[in-house]
Write a structure and sequence with these properties.
Layout (H helix, E strand, L loop, with lengths): L4 H11 L5 E10 L4 E4 L10 E7 L6 E7 L2 E4 L10 E4 L3 E4 L8 E8 L5 E11 L13 E9 L3 E9 L17 H4 L4 E7 L2 E7 L10
Length: 212
């Protein structure tokens, strides 16, 4: 007795459906931004079932959407995603306003006749970018910290006193030229060290006390 080889192959297929083709795609999302899960599935021919589900690191499996009467419908529109989740053209899932808890594994599954399955998985990682806002710093106060005078020189140290929240830096910049002091001076020096500003003047020829 001889059996047709094609009949044997069909019987084996019915008893042991082919393994589902599964692929995993890593998707990086940003907190508060939207993200799209785009599948490579072809829905040509007869489709028996379609569904999307979500599995967080902890907690039960959550069915997001499934095929009903030829259309993809949300399994529970009142779940944690609510209006943030949208199904586009049956094969694309979009989540708006990402939250940290949205991170996890999303699975798209299509069931064809004879038990054939198409499965595609997405691993969503949520990244948080901090935006540092700069608060205005109150008007700083400048006070003479040290003043020393000799017959031929004068040293002055100015201290910048600033207040505000958090850490901030202090820098000095030159304002109006030292016109009155430049005339007749043999040498002068300006230097900065953090919140301190040092001024030094020498006048050996005129030999008179300098006042700043």
């Amino acid at each position: 007795m001889f059996l047709d080889f094609n009949l044997l192959l069909l019987a084996a297929t019915l008893m042991h459906p082919p393994a589902a083709q599964t692929s995993i795609h890593v998707v990086n999302g940003v907190l508060g931004k939207p993200v799209n899960f785009v599948t490579n599935a072809s829905l040509e021919g007869i489709v028996e079932a379609i569904d999307w589900d979500f599995q967080a690191e902890t907690g039960p499996l959550l069915v997001l959407a499934e095929l009903k009467n030829g259309e993809i419908k949300r399994a529970n529109p009142e779940d944690r995603f609510r209006q943030r989740l949208e199904i586009i053209n049956k094969t694309m899932l979009r989540i708006k306003d990402l939250e940290v808890e949205d991170g996890g594994e999303y699975t798209f599954r299509v069931k064809f006749p004879l038990g054939k399955l198409y499965i595609q998985k997405f691993q969503l990682n949520i990244f948080v970018f901090h935006t540092f806002l700069t608060d205005p710093v109150p008007q700083p106060q400048i006070h003479p910290e040290q003043v020393s005078q000799t017959l031929h020189a004068c040293n002055v140290t100015l201290k910048c006193l600033a207040s505000g929240k958090g850490r901030f830096s202090i820098s000095w910049e030159a304002g109006n030229p030292l016109k009155g002091l430049e005339e007749g001076l043999d040498w002068y020096q300006l230097s900065s060290n953090g919140s301190d500003r040092k001024l030094r003047f020498w006048d050996y020829h005129r030999r008179k006390r300098l006042v700043v």
